[in-house]
What we know:
Elements: E1 11-18, E2 24-30, E3 36-40, E4 58-65, E5 71-77, E6 82-86, E7 104-111, E8 117-123, E9 127-132, E10 143-144, E11 149-155, E12 158-163, E13 166-170
Antiparallel strand pairs: 1-2, 2-3, 4-5, 5-6, 7-8, 8-9, 9-10, 11-12, 12-13
Amino acid sequence: MTDVTRWFFAIHAVAVGALPDGTPVIVSGGSADGTVRIWRLADCAPVGEPLTGHASTVEAVAVGALPDGTQVIVSGSDDGTVRVWRLADGTPVGEPLTGHDGAVVTVAIGTLADGTPVVVSGGHSGAVRVWRLPDGTPVVPPLGLSQSVGDVTFHSNVIVTAAGADIAVHQPALPRPIR
Length: 179
């Protein structure tokens, strides 16, 4: 198998997904140039050009779907932003999601109990944010943890965080868009 690492100084995150034709792919993030890259799983050949837009290292990637089934990549970076890209062609979906004070080191994609897909992001500042995937609208006020968030995951209306030596379950009042 081809070694994907030859293309990066360092890889910080990986996820798997599929192109519209069903081809399995690896999505990777890392490198100080802020790029996200897509590779065919079968032979690790690059798919398209690198996705650019982050100003610094990409720390987290996830793959999910918009309500219409369009596969997307979500990435979080040291530049404090979360970006959403169409997996098929790398075009951005909306504007970058901002609001973290510092690096975004983890992202997850889930679905609210009402079927709305969401992005959950966590960062070094201890903030955990929940955004509607289709339009980037915040769903609830940020959760403020006392330690850097190492990982997040999401199921229905429950957010699970890993921060320091703690794993915590959060059940914020979801869904309730903030205006």
